[in-house]
């Protein structure tokens, strides 16, 4: 019997995920220019003030997370679809950057959809592509009847809108009207290990520092006031160039929340997802980290005042401009990832898991269950100019039998056995899929 963890949701053993650290990027102009630009704009004093403050904040936040375990992650019932989030729920979501909303798709319907997509994959196995190569289970399938049924479901569109409404934009240039971003399907068999998705943050990596339109999102943090960072400001965020460096992991689409809709039950150590349940301080720490070098003495590592301002050299731990932003225990010690990265509570078919676009997350390396663990990736995306442009193109692509440009697949899904397209869509669904853009 495995030892019982004392903190609900905490990892029993830390997987062999990669550690990040010393990798001098001084010879690479994009990294050096990004670092210099931030130092030139904000200066050592403000950056250092921000660093000390965020480490102080994290000392308290990490204790709170460890005390509560995954119970810190807000869990809402399907009643949310009628009532919206209560002010208490909203406050908790804004603090943790994540939420589980149960029963968005009625359980029986989610189970039925799972059986159908399982068959659909089986029937088209020779054509559909999937990864990882040695044991494929992430299917490059975007326009299947199951995905479209769930995305266009009135409950799903309702929750999608509620997630978008958690952001604010005083410019009036955007709306929380949902836009559908086509993503793939996961059907992970038991006993399959997968180390590929350790702690990381999507929506770009080096672009957060290199792009002037993106780094302004973190202006309060670089200015020495991480506690003033507003992680929900769409006014600024809507123009951030997440794909400043073009690479497959960097979507052009701004997702207010990334989302999983479960098709099967899922639980800790059964191919589930892990979240770092804090948004403001964790992202502030991550964006300030490249400006400081750790103390030589390992015993001083948690003392932020012993870290030195990195005015020479150029390290961006866990940052590779062509990958998502990765984090690790040794490179980002104040996050206390070992203790604070939490499995989400058990989820049932039809439940949804949502996490903020800047939230650190990871995928279970193990699946000790006995059944396949399947989710469909459906994020929330508000109506911004960039998102509308992409969704318009996405619709033209899929109607012409091309896979969405973000994924660069080459399969004509219209030719798959059992393909249905967009038949039976409501007006609201047609709007979300981009028919009126
Ligand atoms: Fe991710």
TrEMBL record:
<dbReference type="InterPro" id="IPR010856">
    <property type="entry name" value="Gig2-like"/>
</dbReference>
<protein>
    <recommendedName>
        <fullName>DUF1479-domain-containing protein</fullName>
    </recommendedName>
</protein>
<dbReference type="Pfam" id="PF07350">
    <property type="entry name" value="Gig2-like"/>
</dbReference>
<dbReference type="InterPro" id="IPR027443">
    <property type="entry name" value="IPNS-like_sf"/>
</dbReference>
């Amino acid at each position: 019997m495995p030892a019982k963890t004392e903190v609900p949701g905490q990892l029993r053993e830390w997987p062999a995920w990669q550690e990040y650290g010393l990798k001098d990027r001084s010879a690479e102009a994009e990294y050096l220019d990004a670092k210099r630009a931030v130092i030139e704009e904000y200066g050592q004093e403000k950056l250092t003030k921000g660093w000390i403050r965020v480490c102080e904040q994290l000392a308290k936040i990490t204790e709170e997370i460890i005390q509560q375990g995954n119970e810190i992650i807000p869990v809402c019932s399907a009643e949310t679809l009628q009532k919206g989030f209560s002010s208490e729920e909203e406050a908790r979501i804004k603090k943790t950057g994540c939420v589980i909303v149960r029963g968005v798709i009625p359980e029986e319907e989610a189970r039925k959809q799972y059986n159908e997509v399982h068959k659909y994959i089986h029937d088209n196995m020779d054509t559909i592509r999937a990864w990882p190569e040695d044991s494929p289970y992430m299917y490059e399938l975007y326009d299947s009847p199951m995905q479209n049924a769930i995305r266009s479901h009135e409950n799903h569109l309702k929750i999608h809108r509620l997630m978008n409404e958690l952001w604010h934009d005083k410019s009036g240039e955007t709306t929380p009207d949902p836009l559908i971003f086509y993503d793939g399907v996961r059907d992970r068999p038991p006993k399959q290990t997968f180390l590929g998705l350790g702690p990381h943050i999507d929506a770009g990596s080096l672009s957060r520092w290199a792009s002037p339109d993106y780094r302004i999102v973190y202006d309060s943090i670089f200015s020495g006031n991480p506690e003033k960072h507003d992680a929900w400001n769409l006014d600024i965020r809507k123009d951030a160039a997440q794909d400043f460096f073009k690479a497959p992991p960097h979507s052009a689409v701004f997702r207010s929340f990334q989302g999983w809709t479960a098709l099967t039950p899922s639980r800790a150590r059964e191919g589930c997802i892990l979240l770092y349940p804090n948004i403001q301080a964790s992202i502030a720490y991550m964006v300030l980290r490249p400006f400081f070098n750790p103390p030589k003495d390992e015993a001083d590592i948690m003392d932020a005042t012993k870290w030195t301002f990195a005015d020479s050299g150029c390290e961006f731990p866990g940052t590779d401009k062509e990958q998502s932003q990765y984090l690790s225990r040794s490179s980002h010690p104040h996050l206390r990832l070992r203790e604070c990265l939490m499995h989400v509570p058990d989820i049932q078919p039809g439940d949804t898991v949502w996490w903020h676009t800047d939230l650190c997350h990871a995928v279970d390396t193990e699946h000790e269950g006995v059944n396949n663990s399947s989710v469909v990736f459906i994020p929330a995306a508000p109506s911004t100019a960039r998102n509308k442009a992409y969704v318009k193109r996405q619709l033209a692509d899929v109607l012409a039998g091309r896979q969405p440009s973000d994924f660069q697949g080459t399969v004509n899904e219209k030719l798959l056995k059992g393909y249905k397209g967009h038949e039976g869509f409501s007006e609201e669904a047609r709007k979300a899929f981009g028919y009126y853009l």
